[in-house]
């Protein structure tokens, strides 16, 4: 278990964490090479995760979920990070569900949450556009009211689950004359939807087994019943509210991944011989691994505390930004050291640590860049 000492850990969560690790080891890890070759996971993995209860862990039972909370999600994402492989776009799926939980109308929750819990719907978040990422207020995809529909025109880029997803929380401008106040969120079911088109599966330096795509909307009709929360112009504040969970989640994944990197590197350097002894016997190796462990434990303590707060709905946005900033930066530093300690083998894709290295790089970019995290933290200083 990644969070054994957390104040919020219960026996039930501990058992759930062990079972989740076994699920990923049995159902995901053996197929990672295949996912990497085809640049996306199989639909079967989504269905199995649905059956197992991973997709709907924090969705209330009345909407088809298991009735857990953020603590269950936290255990899942720590274990996902610990696999060392980020092919499974579970995190954006989970975030889409949390938007519905937080802001969906009763009808929207009943319509979409049970299908997200089973994997019939695979979720994603479509915010970023070719012309704007960090500056969300500047999105240009428009949704103009026509009868009972919004007519949507524009495009999105870098959308995780962009090939396999069939339900997106879509960020649009319902009033282009306004900045943040003109933004709204739409629930977008894409199966058979006219005017919806996917671009190619984008070629990335990491996350080889995960699909990331452009999405295009050409006079795409979306019923007004799909407006999240049934209220226009609230999109920006809805985004700001939910970004806290997304950012903490990335910090949680960083804890799991960093722990895995250290464990694998201790094992490798114990086996590998140079100058007649194990690499781990060199003082430099032991000191570097000691530094990695110390950084991990500081990060873990902060993330554990933050999870305790989000369970009680008390996590402030700047605290979530700290978890994301320091999680992604520390993950990058630890994995970089671990690659070094693997020598040339650390540069070979055949080795998990090499793949973790390229996967880790995006943690500082998506979900808000490190620079944007610093802006958000700095705003609260004065
Ligand atoms: C693999 C991958 C998956 C992704 N998945 C999704 C997804 O599912 N959904 C989605 O909507 N988006 C997704 N993204 C997009 C991601 O969130 C954006 O790339 C990110 O927010 C940065 O936006 P940008 O690329 O437009 O960079 P820009 O905003 O153009 O930033 C360029 C540089 O300028 C810096 N910068 C910008 N503003 C400031 C400022 N005010 N102060 C200081 N520095 C600043 C940035 O930090 C960065 O270093 C994904 C991206 C990748 C690579």
For the record, the CATH architecture of the largest domain stands as Up-down Bundle
Low-confidence stretches: none
What is the CATH domain class of the largest domain?
Mainly Alpha
Major beta sheet summary: 4 strands, antiparallel
Q: What is the tally of helical segments?
A: 11
In which order are the strands of the major sheet placed?
A: 2-3-7-6
Overall helicity: 40-55%
How many strands appear in the DSSP assignment? 9
Shape: globular
* Share of residues in strands: 5-15%
Oligomer: single chain
The CATH homologous superfamily of the largest domain is named: Butyryl-CoA Dehydrogenase, subunit A, domain 3
Total domain units: 3
| Rg calc | 21 Å
Helix-strand pattern: HHHHHHEEEEEEEHEEHHHH
In brief:
This protein has 382 residues and is an alpha+beta fold. Helices cover 49% and strands 15% of the residues. The protein folds into three domains: 111 residues, Orthogonal Bundle (Butyryl-Coa Dehydrogenase, subunit A, domain 1); 111 residues, Butyryl-CoA Dehydrogenase, subunit A, domain 2 (Beta Barrel); 143 residues, Butyryl-CoA Dehydrogenase, subunit A, domain 3, CATH 1.20.140.10.
């Amino acid at each position: 278990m990644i969070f054994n000492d957390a104040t919020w850990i219960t026996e039930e969560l501990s058992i759930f964490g062990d079972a989740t690790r076994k699920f990923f080891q049995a159902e995901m890890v053996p197929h990672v090479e295949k996912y990497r070759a085809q640049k996306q996971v199989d639909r079967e993995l989504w269905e199995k995760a649905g059956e197992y209860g991973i997709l709907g862990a924090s969705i209330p039972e009345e909407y088809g979920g298991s009735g857990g909370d953020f603590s269950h999600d936290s255990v899942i994402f720590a274990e996902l990070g610990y696999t060392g492989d980020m092919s499974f776009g579970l995190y954006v799926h989970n975030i889409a569900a949390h938007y519905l939980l937080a802001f969906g109308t009763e009808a929207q929750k009943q319509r979409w949450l049970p299908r997200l819990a089973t994997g019939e719907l695979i979720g994603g978040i479509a915010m970023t556009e070719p012309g704007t990422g960090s500056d969300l207020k500047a999105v240009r995809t428009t949704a103009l009211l026509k009868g009972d529909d919004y007519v949507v025109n524009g495009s999105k880029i870098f959308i995780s689950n962009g090939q396999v997803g069939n339900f997106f929380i879509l960020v649009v401008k319902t009033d282009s004359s306004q900045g943040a106040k003109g933004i709204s969120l739409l629930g977008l079911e894409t199966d058979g939807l006219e005017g919806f088109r996917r671009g190619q599966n984008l070629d990335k330096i990491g996350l080889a087994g995960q699909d990331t795509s452009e999405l295009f909307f050409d006079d795409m009709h979306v019923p007004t019943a799909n407006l999240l929360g049934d209220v226009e112009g609230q999109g920006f504040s809805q985004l700001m509210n939910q970004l806290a969970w997304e950012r903490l989640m990335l910090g949680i994944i960083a804890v799991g991944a960093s722990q895995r990197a250290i464990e694998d590197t201790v094992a490798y350097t114990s086996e590998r011989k140079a100058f007649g002894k194990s690499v781990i016997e060199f003082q430099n190796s032991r000191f570097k691994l000691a530094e990695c462990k110390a950084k991990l434990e500081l990060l873990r303590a902060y993330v554990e505390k933050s999870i305790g707060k989000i369970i009680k709905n008390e996590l402030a946005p700047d605290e979530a930004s700290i978890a994301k900033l320091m999680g992604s930066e520390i993950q990058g530093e630890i994995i970089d050291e671990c690659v070094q300690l693997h020598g040339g083998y650390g540069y070979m894709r055949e080795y998990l640590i090499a793949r973790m290295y390229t996967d880790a790089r995006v943690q500082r970019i998506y979900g808000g860049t490190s620079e944007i995290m610093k802006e958000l933290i700095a705003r609260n200083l004065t």
